[in-house]
Amino acid sequence: MSFLAEREQLATRLGFILVSAGCAVGLGNVWRFPYITGRYGGAIFVLFYVIFLMVMGLPIMVCEYSMGRASRRNLAGAMLTLEPAGTKWHIYGYVGVLGNLILMMFYTTVSGWGMAYIYYSAAGRLSGLTPQEVGAFFNSFISNVPEVTIWMALTVVLGFMVCSIGLQAGVERASKVLMSGLFLLLIVLIVRSVTLPGAEKGLAFYLKPDFSKLNWEAVYAAMSQAFFSLSLGIGSMTIFGSYLSKDRALMGESIYVIFFGALSALMSGLV
What we know:
Layout (H helix, E strand, L loop, with lengths): L1 H5 L6 H12 L2 H13 L3 H29 L3 H8 L6 H34 L8 H12 L2 H21 L1 H28 L4 H9 L8 H15 L5 H6 L8 H21 L1
Helix pairs in contact: 2-9, 2-13, 3-11, 3-13, 4-5, 4-11, 4-13, 5-6, 6-8, 8-9, 9-13
């Protein structure tokens, strides 16, 4: 009980929303959503995506938040604490923790790529290269195992440093800065993208509904994208819910997080 009483909480509502949105907003929104939208009919795919966000994503997010807040623990601890007597839900909790560890192997590697690209761009290594030359540079970079490992290790160290500072001073503050920077960057890139020659064709491809591509595969893709882009089902939102105070409405917090996730996806499509 003393552990639960001393557990740190996020300082502000905005901090909680941005921390949760920071987990939800990732490759699923920035990378996967734009191309899959174009592949499955543009605006008609977006419509089904939004429907699945509200019909399936919202209730599942509320459930994950409620589990975290009720138990004040991570997914494994929540399952162990809340499971009915005689049931084995805690086994899924351990599987979820293992899944998160495997997922972090992927994200820390890709984040290392991102930091490497920032460095090489600032050093001028990518300036003046054709798309083919950039592709060759990338293939050469990822085949250099020692270098990729160093950038991945740097990502892990930075993550540990932020977490070691604390929930409010570290994670919450970093999320506010990084999420604000992300949306500012997206706005700048959108302005640049829509003012390029031929941008109207790209906008039509992205936003004009193409009903000929509407099939069950497109509907399934919209449903899976809704789960992927909100990081649902792996316990991430359970962890954030464990830091949520009792005076916050779970439905309201979930709607805000889903809004920011969907907004980032739509903005990335414009880019």
